[in-house]
# Entry
Amino acid sequence: MGERPHAFKAGHGNLSTWRGTTVTMPPSGHRGPRHPVNDEQALRDELLAQARRLGASGLSQGTSGNLSARHGDGFLVTPSGMPYDELRAEDLVRVDMQGRYEHRLRPSSEWRFHRDIYAARPDAAAVVHVHPPHATALAMCRMDIPAAHYMIAVGGGDSIRCAGYHTYGTQALSDAVLEALDGRLACLMANHGMLAVGSDLAQAMWRAVEVETLARHYALALQVGRPVLLTDGEVADVLATFANYGLMSPRS
# Structure
């Protein structure tokens, strides 16, 4: 049986508006992916497939990062310290909302923020936490990503915030991540990495790739000069139309 966590804070929710403009997020009552995967084995297979994409996508390397998917009254999460190319579907650990598990492997050391995100964010059905080069470089400088490109909308607002630094695996880190995600769909994590949520695994992975691309563009722009930021109105226009962009669009 796994260790019991500290009490989580459930007061963080997804904001439905940003400066008077509707932010593109699933309805507040949504508690699963756009096409729910009710079969646990099918979800394990999908989670395994996405985990094996991490290295090729450049999002993480070795055993760094972790992924999870909401299932039933808990979630499936990648185990601690196992290379993704050695991972099997049965190695994924099911954790309940009290942080309990019954498995020969330990869940990722970051299971707390996965659990707390699912508890606080009914719109989240998948969480991807990774350490890609450019997003992590900005996080090492404790920098937010501002609205220097219209793809800032992928994070759900006019910035992608950087959560404060805390030791990995702690409740303090989980609380900081929830604060940075308030009204957002992605965040950086100071001196650590990046996190993205989605209404399913494919969307969460897509968002993580887009945030890393945005971080790379912003880092390059900082070397060229001083990036010009979009106005509030320009960001609002993008957010208002973003529901049909990329994997934000409902799939048939």
